[in-house]
Amino acid sequence: MAKLVDILEKFPFPPEKKKPALIRKSEYSTAIYPPNDASTSDNTFTIISTDTFMLGIYELAPGGVFLPLDIHPGDESYYILQGPVIQRSGNGQFAYLQTGEGLFMPMGAWHCAHNFSDKKTRILYFITPKAWSKDIPPAVIPSDEETKYYKGANNDRLPNMQGVIEDISRQGCTDDIGHFPVEGSEARATGAVYAVREHEKLNNIHGTHHPMLLRFITSNDFGNFGEMILPAGGYGPRCSDPDVHEGDGCIYCVDGPVTLNLVDLEESFVLEEGDTFFLPAHTKYQLVNFEAKPVKAVFGITQL
User: Fold this and answer.
1) Higher-pLDDT residue of 282, 139
2) Cβ atoms of 59 and 92 closer than 8 Å
3) N or C: which end of the chain has fewer CB within 10 A?
């Protein structure tokens, strides 16, 4: 497969050729990261890399870690496909994440991940608006002395995070959409990272005639990321109300199959578990459930 640097912002097609597209998991581009040291690498699957976002999966072997610390010129959100995983931030935050939980990392947050379990971990990530600068991995990496950890040599000299990490456990509301788990600009200023547990996701209902559950992990001025859960049952197959977004987006099938219907184009596609659909801005679509159980997908949308 192609090198990661060779497909950035043009996979599976360049920005000027964007179109609605089903991307099967067999078509993902594979690489190890970092590319220059397999002993501290993760197994990376690039699903979409365009000029507005990047979507992919990385895997860590049992007992593994990816190093060196990484950084992005955009916000990054996680959905844990198979956990647990420990996400380390250079500021001294360590998040223990189980399957189905999420994470929000603001632009500029140094990070890596550890797998202390006896099983492979798999993480779905969404980075927007820009995933990488020109250097992969970054040309300048913080030393251990420039990060915080247990009995770190310079912990007392580095910023204290206790007063800047917000409590996100209160009941959410519709007005939180666009400001969750905290204001994006605030998180980018403080560098605080937020684990979003199952009970902390921002819940809402899409549609009143054909309701579908939305569970946001992230929603801010850079992008939106979370779960769509469409129940079974009804007169015929269960459908979500059609929707259109101002920005580019994608749908990743977690528990399917789920049918994605392009309403105006009168075309439909079946997503099996692990498949993804790319939605250019202003594409009208709906999800359809022909199964006798709820189906679940993860959405990444740059602008609702």
Assistant:
1) 282
2) no
3) N
